[in-house]
Amino acid sequence: MSTKNSLCGFECVFSKKSDVWSFFKFPDIVFDHYYFSVADAFVFSHGIRIEIPERFPSSYFQELIQKSFVGEGLVLHLYPENADHEEIDHYEDFLKSKCEMIILLYDFYYLEIYCKNQTWLQKLMHTAINTPGAVVEEKYEETDTRTIMYV
């Protein structure tokens, strides 16, 4: 049986695009001294692929989410502002890295989040759980079946 200490993330399916926008406002979490790094992106707007900078602040990510686009796949890593992007292929790589969070967003409504900071993880899960129509499933290190950190 899994223990609460082994919680490594969660997956969520939203029922409305506006719920995705609301979720990614990151209520109660401040990422002022962090940046997002794009590990993989297949994001389109009106049939045209959107190029996303390799490194950007959370405010840019929030603006991107609010724009009308279709995300076939978006993998983001969150790093402290003084850390360099690292190649992360597996969960073990994530644990050894300076990356604090991985966001895997695909088909715009489905996401998985892995997070080292348990306080952030709990706040993000609370936001997702309290979104009407959202289906949330906790992920535990012992039972998570994901083998790669890509979509």
Question: How many angstroms does the end-to-end distance come to?
Answer: 28 Å
Q: Hey, roughly how much beta strand do the residues contain? A: 25-35%
Q: H/E order of the elements?
A: EHEEEHEHEEHE
Number of DSSP-assigned strands: 8
Radius of gyration: 15 Å
* Uncertain residue segments: none
Overall number of structural domains: 1
Helix fraction bin: 10-25%
User: Shape from CA axes?
Assistant: globular
pLDDT averaged residue by residue: 86
Number of helices: 4
- Which structural class fits the helix and strand makeup? alpha+beta
Biggest β-sheet description = 8 strands, antiparallel
Properties at a glance:
alpha+beta, 4 helices, 8 strands, 23% helix
Describe it:
The longest helix has 12 residues, at 118-129. Helices cover 23% and strands 34% of the residues. It is built from four helices and eight strands. It is of the alpha+beta class and 151 residues long. Strands 1, 2, 3, 4, 5, 6, 7 and 8 form an eight-stranded antiparallel sheet that branches. It has one domain (4-140).
